[in-house]
Amino acid sequence: MLPLILVADIVIGMQSTVLIEANLLKKPVMSIQIGRKGPDQFILSKRGIVEAITARDVLKQELRRFLLHEGKGSQKMLPVIPHPIENVKRFIIPVFGQK
Questions:
Q1: Tens place of pLDDT for every residue, the chain, 99 residues?
Q2: What is the pTM of this model?
Q3: CA distance 33 to 36
Q4: Using alpha carbons only, what angle is made at residue 84 by residues 79 and 90, rounded to the nearest 5 degrees?
Q5: Residues with Cβ < 8 Å from 30, sequence gap 6 or more?
């Protein structure tokens, strides 16, 4: 999992050790716990490092904030990769062959 965390722009999960690893590697993390009942038991939440997202509207707002520069209109923070499906096909077909 470590190589994926290293290249990630953000790591999204619920309460996993992957979020803890990502946080230790200084990656932005989101703990999504929509529908959670009771207190948040996630260690990063208990330590005040991450605030769990428990509502869909807050999730939408936080994703928008991360993906778009605030105050910069709709300028994207993350690069748009042209033709993503074709790029994946070019990678997978030589490895696994065409069916």
A1: 778 888 888 899 999 999 999 999 999 899 999 989 899 999 999 999 999 999 999 999 998 888 876 545 444 455 667 787 887 888 787 877 765
A2: 0.64
A3: 5
A4: 130
A5: 10, 11, 12, 13, 50, 53, 59, 62, 66
